[in-house]
Amino acid sequence: MNILIVYAHPEPRSLNGSLKDFAVARLKEAGHAVQVSDLYAMNWKAPIDADDSLAPRTGERFDASLASMHAFENGLQSEDIVREQDKLRWADTVILQFPLWWYSMPAIMKGWVERVYAYGFAYGVGEHSDAHWGDRFGEGTLAGKRAMVIVTTGGWESHYAARGINGPIDDLLFPIHHGILYYPGFEVLPPFVVYRTGKIDAARYAGIRTALGERLDKLESTTPIAFRPQNAGDYAIPALTLREDIAPGVTGFAAHVRDAAEAR
């Protein structure tokens, strides 16, 4: 299997750096081909702007979506964007690894998404009609691939529980899981989360490596999160709201995940 790790941490000697190196070694030992996009080491340019296109500037107002579409369709994307898109095409599975900073991914990784997910590559694809609102949320150019998040946080696991002060970890990761990964078609695996990173001794570190190794060994067989496909009948189109008979009484993020009875 071809595996791409998109990694964002500025310190190679960090816990994240160690776990990234462990993951690469474990995956290669299992016979997988691995590429790593180490965003800080690459000095990745995070802002999306007119310089992402090789076309000369015209002085017109910059429109990120239209400029992205024009560059993608006409072979005018900057080389760094093209390289990352080629990695995504190559990969069977993508792993996003990052520390949870201010309730989300680091800015440099968000910038990777914004620039690499070009119009026509990851969004703006497919028929838009009264029966089908684009190829997205379960469909799209990256359908058939798997994705998983490896995330670390200094907070305790209880802080991210159902009634924890930070909110449930699944809710915090929903914009990444559902919006960044499921939107262009990935099957999204449950995340691997390391809590309370400031309190890790040798014994706990060994346990984390063991648990991560077991997750990596099962990338091909792990059951993905049962998000609802957009165009399979659960949503009214074009309103894109759940039909009244689907998950009645359930609101919020949980409504967009099929329960165990539906998934059977």
UniProtKB/TrEMBL annotation:
Matches recorded under InterPro entries: Flavodoxin_fold, Flavoprotein-like_sf, NAD(P)H_dehydrogenase_qn
Keywords: Oxidoreductase
Any Pfam family: Flavodoxin_2
Residues covered by the Flavodoxin-like fold domain: 1-205
Signal peptide: none
Family: Belongs to the NAD(P)H dehydrogenase (quinone) family.
Protein name: NAD(P)H dehydrogenase
Gene source species: Herbaspirillum hiltneri N3
